[in-house]
């Protein structure tokens, strides 16, 4: 539905102010390393730093690529790479809440080699936060956290924030006396199967908050419930038109989108706003720690209630017909329309505020041209002013080609996975092949020049499903109708 120019200008300036306020806190993912997770045995690294050009910056000297696309055959480990990053984020966000006292760590090591079960699993992320590089990582086995560390690199020099081993916690020389006392208390209450970073962040330790906040607020994964994010955006007047425009420009025949709120959803939203306000007041007035703890729990409960209640909201699409406009529910839309609707809210959120959006199998249900245009949104400074990043896995080889005469993906934005003879995943970049800028990467990939494609024999594939003995020898008629 159209809005006045004055209202649109106000919305534009509101988004601009929001971007300016958040810019200082924007972080970028520089690399991710993992070992001994599902099909990943030996350490694999996904690097998001530019190889051929300057890349994009988070506002400082730290630079990264805006998109990283991982290609490979089925069951080669693309989804397992995403799962490893998601598992790391889940541990950071909630190990202190989810851990069972006296229990171990539920992990998924490489099981095709007996050593995988015995060896620890490793997860390491290199981040650029506020102009400073951070390296955070940990190793775990079935019993608990074996090691954990956080380093920062102000002015390019390594500084230890903390190192955790079986012998205890070592703090860097820059950590003050007061912080040392607090870390000593935190160490005493950190269980063996809980990350120190999670507990220290809950204790509001400034030294760890930038990294913790990146994992909790700037790393986002597309899931089947992401439609709720789009529905929330529809409820905001300044973004409704942008959601509609995105769907309209995808040539889906959609003229407008209407959100019908349920009474339960409206009540849950009011309750959430009230509890959040009470928490802010308690923190500002230096209330007792137990009271603040209880209010934080109340906020989490209200958030959960709000998320569940929002599922009762209903979305209707306004589409044109010969008889005029018709209102249709989301459920009757095509899989592609539903997928793009799920994407719309998270896309606008990450492009508006920065961060990393992770999408496994982005080409599922989406037309290749739509996928290519989504990639282009992240590569364009006009649509991605906050330096957001898109990490995706895909089978869509057309993304290695061109759109409008320009490469959809640059050479240092392409990665491949394949499995070795032992069933272990290997991750490697296109840049290892030193491709020319003008070579036909789509054709070369499909032709097997880069590897990471399934080797399928036409004869053996057909023979595997060929009917034995003909239709009259024990083959039910229904099977061949």
From TrEMBL:
Domain of life (superkingdom): Bacteria
Taxonomic lineage: Bacteria, Bacillati, Actinomycetota, Actinomycetes, Kitasatosporales
Record organism: Streptodolium elevatio
ATPase AAA-type core domain segment(s): 67-400
Keywords linked to the UniProt accession: ATP-binding, Nucleotide-binding
Keyword ATP-binding: yes
GO MF term set: ATP binding
Keyword ATP-binding: yes
Protein name: ATP-binding protein
Pfam families: AAA_21
InterPro entries per record: ATPase_AAA_core, P-loop_NTPase
Transmembrane regions listed in the UniProt entry: none
Coiled coil: none
């Amino acid at each position: 539905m159209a809005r006045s120019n004055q209202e649109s200008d106000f919305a534009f300036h509101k988004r601009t102010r929001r971007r300016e306020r958040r810019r200082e806190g924007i972080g970028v993912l520089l690399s991710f390393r993992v070992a001994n997770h599902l099909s990943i045995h030996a350490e694999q690294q996904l690097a998001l730093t530019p190889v051929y050009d300057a890349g994009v910056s988070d506002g400082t000297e730290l630079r990264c690529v805006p998109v990283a696309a991982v290609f490979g055959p089925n069951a080669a480990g693309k989804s397992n790479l995403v799962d490893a990053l998601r598992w790391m984020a889940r541990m950071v966000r909630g190990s202190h809440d989810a851990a069972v006292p006296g229990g171990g760590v539920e992990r998924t090591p490489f099981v095709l080699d007996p050593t995988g079960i015995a060896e620890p699993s490793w997860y390491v992320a290199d981040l650029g936060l506020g102009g400073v590089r951070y390296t955070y990582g940990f190793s775990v086995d079935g019993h608990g956290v074996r090691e954990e560390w956080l380093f920062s690199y102000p002015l390019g020099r390594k500084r230890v924030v903390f190192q955790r081993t079986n012998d205890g916690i070592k703090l860097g020389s820059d950590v003050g006396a007061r912080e040392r006392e607090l870390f000593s208390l935190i160490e005493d209450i950190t269980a063996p199967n809980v990350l120190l970073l999670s507990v220290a962040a809950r204790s509001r330790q400034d030294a760890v908050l930038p990294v913790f906040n990146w994992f909790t607020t700037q790393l986002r994964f597309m899931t089947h419930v992401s439609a709720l994010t789009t529905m929330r955006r529809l409820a905001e007047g300044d973004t409704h038109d942008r959601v509609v425009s995105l769907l309209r420009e995808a040539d889906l025949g959609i003229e407008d989108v209407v959100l019908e709120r349920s009474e339960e959803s409206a009540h849950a939203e009011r309750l959430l706003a009230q509890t959040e306000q009470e928490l802010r007041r308690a923190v500002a007035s230096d209330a007792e720690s137990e009271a603040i703890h209880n209010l934080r729990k109340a906020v989490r409960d209200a958030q959960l209630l709000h998320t569940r209640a929002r599922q009762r909201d209903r979305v209707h699409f306004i589409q044109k017909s010969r008889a005029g406009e018709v209102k249709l529910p989301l459920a009757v839309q095509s899989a592609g329309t539903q997928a793009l609707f799920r994407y719309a809210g998270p896309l606008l959120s990450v492009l508006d505020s920065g961060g990393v959006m992770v999408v496994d199998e982005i080409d599922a249900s989406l037309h290749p041209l739509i996928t290519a245009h989504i990639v282009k949104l992240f590569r364009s400074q006009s649509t991605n002013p906050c330096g957001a990043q898109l990490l995706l896995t895909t089978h869509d080889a057309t993304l290695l080609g061109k759109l409008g005469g320009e490469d959809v993906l640059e050479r240092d934005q392409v990665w491949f996975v394949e499995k070795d003879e032992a069933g272990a995943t290997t991750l490697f970049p296109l840049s290892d092949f030193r491709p020319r800028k003008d070579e036909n990467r789509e054709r070369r990939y499909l032709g097997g020049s880069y590897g990471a494609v399934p080797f399928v024999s036409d004869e053996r594939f057909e023979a595997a499903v060929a009917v034995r003995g003909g239709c009259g020898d024990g083959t039910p008629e229904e099977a061949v109708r």
